[in-house]
């Protein structure tokens, strides 16, 4: 309420009470819902409260009075003296502290009648000197007493509400504790069930492992039994083979006794083979003579080749042109000479082989030294005789192979010789053709050089004449200008 000289202006002030956690007495109350029984609930404006207020004399209904007081509180506070206004403010603050939310304060909105009454009172009291010297009227004192009684009733209700709320909180806490205990019991039960299941699974796995071990043990035992049976059958087969070998050994001993009687016949055959070896030695000597003749022929051919090469070199030296082609032909001739040298080496190798064969043939004459002087042992003469027969057969085969190889080498040599001669003839023809071509090229080059010289002379003479004519024309032009 703001007073201005001559008129009054009322400005409503918005008020939002702060939610107090604790009251002046230190009692705790919260915003949890009321969960008490219906017998313990004493709400403001209920039938119990009306019955309680009807017993008090000289009091109006609490709801209307409360609204009137709240609507008239700003004006009353302004019109009252300082002490009463301070006391009223303290009671109003206690009332605001006891309220739990802004919704309880919304019921204290001032009515239009209270505002009109207060405005009349304020206009009547404008003529006073100061607001502090005003004295409260009896109606205002009664209103203050009524307000105090209402505030006390409200405090009692709030205390009762706090008690019921605390009781409800204890009940809720008890319920939550019981739920936690139930959850703990359920967790223990689930853990016990899980442990039991793990134990049963471990036992099952152990049983399965034991069964697998038993199965593998049985399989291994079966495999070893089968292997043992197989080894026993192999040992019986080996014993049978040993018995058969013993029988064969006895038969071979009897055969050796028979062969000792045949040894004399073998000795006679040995003498026959020695005579055959002497004849073969004569044949080898004849082959040596043939080889010598062939060597002589080779030497004569080589001499002829050397003569041909000398002639070729003389012709190549006599030729002045075609040096590059002559050099290539010379390389080819060198290759032919190398081929001839290889043929000579092959012939020498064949001669060495024949000499070795002859030495082996002559060494067979000493084969009688292999036989013992006395027939004390029957096995060794037979073995030596068999070796001698094999050796003689081998020598015969080697001699036949050498003859065949020699014939083949002779044919190859003749073929190579003919190829060399044909190649030499072709080289000679190429040399002649190259010589003729070089001579023709030289003649053409000489003709061209002569023609070039003639052309160059003609060009120089024409240039000189042109220069002379140009000089004369310049002189004439200069003379005309002058």
UniProtKB/TrEMBL annotation:
It comes from the Eukaryota. GO terms for cellular component: cytoplasm. Signal peptide: none annotated. PANTHER family: LEUCINE-RICH REPEAT-CONTAINING PROTEIN DDB_G0290503, ZIPPER PUTATIVE TUMOR SUPPRESSOR 2 HOMOLOG-LIKE PROTEIN-RELATED. Residues 207-248, 284-311 form a coiled coil. The keyword Metal-binding does not apply. Keywords: Coiled coil, Cytoplasm. It is found in: Cytoplasm. This is Leucine zipper putative tumor suppressor 2.
